[in-house]
Every structure is written in structure tokens, then in C-alpha cells.
Hints:
Elements: H1 2-21, H2 38-46, H3 49-53, E1 56-59, H4 66-74, E2 78-82, E3 90-93, H5 103-106, H6 111-115, E4 117-119, E5 131-135, E6 138-139, E7 145-146, H7 152-162, E8 171-174, E9 195-197, E10 202-204, H8 219-222, H9 225-238
Parallel strand pairs: 1-2, 1-5, 5-8, 8-9
Antiparallel strand pairs: 2-3, 3-4, 6-7, 9-10
Helix pairs in contact: 2-4
Amino acid sequence: MQSSQTKERLRRDMARRIAEIWPGESQGPLRPPDFPKAGQAAERLRRQAAYRAARVIAFQPDPALLQARINALMDGKTIIAATPGLKQGLVRISPDMIPVAARSRELTGHAMIKSGRQLRFPAANLGRVDMVVGACLAFDQKGRILGDGRGLLDLFHAILRHLGLKDSAPVAVLAADEQEMDDIPQEPWDLAANLVLTPLQGRRLEQERPKAGLVALPPELAALPVVRAVLMRKDQSRG
């Protein structure tokens, strides 16, 4: 309980910081900011050995990751994209699916649902995924992440693990330098980053993976169709 209260306080602190630094990002619900130099953080990701070796990269749909998604297709990689709120599950996008001139438009959150091929579980096969890339409200020096409270990056990663993602697959988070905080509490189900990439710095960290997976999810997450379908697929494989 104390950890949850601390996180809520940190979210309020970050909301004030975002409103001061990027006023346009303070409208509507609190979300990871689409910071002005996100493209520079995306270029820093591009220089990482793990990124260069990856053939398939899983991305959250946040606006701050748009340039990173564009880069991935430009670099010949396949994308596994979470749809907004994971409400329509996961989408696979390969470089041949979207013309170069249309990528800045069709690699945005809701547009990706039509641009790619929706993975319809339990029948769909995820296949390999080599890296996961997400956004956050804040990060600290240990790679601990503060999300917006919806738990979507944790859930995205848990779904991928349930479908075969290896614990060795790195998790990268792109953020602005202004999003760094001194100390973010971590609970057993919280995901931490192996790579934290900002316009000015890159950090590599060793992390243990959460053990909870898709067990005992909050009701609003457990009710998502993609969660039910993925769990059904696992049950069928056991049968």
C-alpha cells in the first residue's frame, strides 16, 4: 500500500513537471509525454547492439515511440505493436505493408490496427520477438519505471512472455532526460528496463523479470479480449 501511495505522489509530481515543460502534453489524461526530442532518443536506440541484432521488435503504441517504429521498418525489422489500451490486441507489421511516405501517418496508435495484420488469438502464432520497446512517465538510475497507472507495459510484456518471449529479450524505454526521478518504488509485478534511452544518454542494466505473469490481474485488465484469448491458447496447448 505504501508503495502504491508513493507512486501516486510521483505521478502527481511528474504531471506538474510535464505541465511546466511541455504544456501541450498536460491536456487530458496523464500519459507518457510525446517529448520534442523523441527522435533523438530513437536514434540512440538505433545504435544499440541489441537493436541492431533484433529482427522482430515489440512496441507500445505511444506517440513518443513513433520515430522508433518508423526506424524499425526502415531498418528492415518486423514490428509487433500493442494497440491503444490493448483493447484490440496485437498487430504484426512488416516493412512491405506500409509505403515509406505513409509511415509517419500509419504507424500511429489506432492507424496501426488497419495498417498491419491483427494477431487473432488463440489461433495466431506470435513467433519470435527479440526486443520490447516502451514509454514511461518517469525512470530512475536503476531502470525502474513509473507508468501512468494503467499497467499496460507490464501487461504487454506479460502477454508476450506467455506467448514465448524469452527473459533474455531486452526491454528498452525511451524518455526525455527531464523524466528522470531519484527513486521509484518497485513492486513484484513491475517491469524494469534493460535499456533507458534519452536524447542525451543511454544506460544498460541487468534486470530480473516479474514472476506474476497473467495471474491475478486487476479485473479491468483480466477482462480484455486479448488476455482471455491468450490464456485460452495456453489452455488448449496443455490439452
